[in-house]
Structures are given as structure tokens and as C-alpha cells.
Fold:
Amino acid sequence: MINNKDYWKDEVMQSINGLQQAEPNVVLWAKLENRLLQEPIHIKMVSKSKVWAVAASIIFLLGINIFFLVQNNPNKPNKNEILLHAYQLYTNPEIQIP
Amino acid sequence: MSPNELEHIYNHYNKRVYNTVLSYVQNAEDAEEITQDVFLEVYRSSENFKGDSSLSTWMYRIAINKCLDFIKFKNRKKRFAFISQLFDTQSGELIHDKADFFHPGVKIENKEKAAILFKAIHNLPQNQKNAFILSQLEGLSYAEISEVMQNTIPSVESLLFRAKQNLRKQLGKWYKEE
Structure:
């Protein structure tokens, strides 16, 4: 059998049954917005090491591109052509070697 | 996150956050102040939200942490007030004694009893208080509470059981006084 004390405890424990949500103040968002305006604007600073890493990558890529451009230049005579030309200089009878 | 996005989140979650905070701090003005702090924190640290948990879980965590910080700060102030009062010969009473809290969402016929219950909730150990508020006042499922508290479901059940036992124990003491 439940005594008075336990009955009272049960009642207190059940007093929050069917609790409705409390409404926040209607001007709460306006207050919050006001605080938002006072927030400092965060500018993300890029670290120096990152800047150097990007610069080095660009220079490296440019270097590779220039190297291959020079290597595959169609106007540049290849080694065989140079040798052949030199050989012709010696074998051409019209050219007198002193 | 832009202010517009924050407004959208605010419109969706403000009641939930406010009510959770209100259950902890048991004062409407403080609850409004902390609710603002919660949304500002969401705005500031939105980049840190990785989506490992749901947005509501993340917001509950922020709200609870803000409340605990506030309660700690208030308790420190109370202790200081109590010590300074020891030197005050004029008053014999505790100035900062906790006032009864009447939750605006409680049925009128239950107001007095609910105020007693809120007083008891205030005295619960931290984890038990978290489990009780999230379950009984916020209506979260055990799975949701375990996610917010980063605990297992059985431990949430155990915390809730102990919270109810503790509350009844406290109520037993107050019944004698009536």
C-alpha cells in the first residue's frame, strides 16, 4: 500500500508530464543579429610555408614545360644533321681547305 | 556560414535550444543569454562541424557545455558571495539562495510541485542531470541521448534510473519539511 509520502513523491515526479515548450522572447533573434554584427570578420591568413610551396610548384612545372619545349623544338637541328653537315664540309670538292 | 544560414538554423532549433538551456539554468533571462551564446558558437565554429553526428546532436552538446560553464561560473560567484557575507554583520540570511523556478510550460495545477522537482533536478550529479533533462524534459530517445552524451544506451538507462532514485531521495527529505 502506498503511503502519503510515496504518493506525494509520485505526484511531484509526474508534475512535469505534458510539459509544454516555453517560448523564447520574440526579440531574441534581433538581439542575436546585433551581436553577429559586432563579430569580427575572420580573414584566414595563408601560412608562409604554403605560399612558398605553391611558388616552388609553379616554378617546377614551368621548368619542366620549358625543358620539354626546348628538347622537342622542330626547328632545332638534331645531332646527326650537324655531323652530316660537318662531313660534307670536308668532302665537298668546291670547298678548299687551306 | 552566412548570417542567413544561421537565421535558418535559428528558426528551426531556437525553441529546442532555449528549452534545454532553461531546464539547466532555471532562469528565463539567463536562458536567453545562453541561447544567444549557443547560436553564436554554432556560427563561429560551423567549419569544425564535420557531420559525424546530426546537427541537433551537435547543438545539444554545445548547449549543455555552455550551461555547465555558466553554472560553474555562477557557483563560484555564490561561494564568493557566501564568504563575503561571513564578514557582513548586518544580514543573517543567505543573499544568493536559489529562488524557486516556475517553468512556463507546466500546467497551472502542477506549478508548485514542478518547482520542487526543478529544485531537486538542480542538485543532481552532472551526468544524471543530463540524462534526466534530455529524456524527461526534452523527450529524446535513449539512442539520441547516448549520442549527445557520447555514452552507451545501457549507461544512459542506468543514469536515468539513478537520477530518478536520487530525485525521490531528495523529495523524501523535503516532504518532512512540509
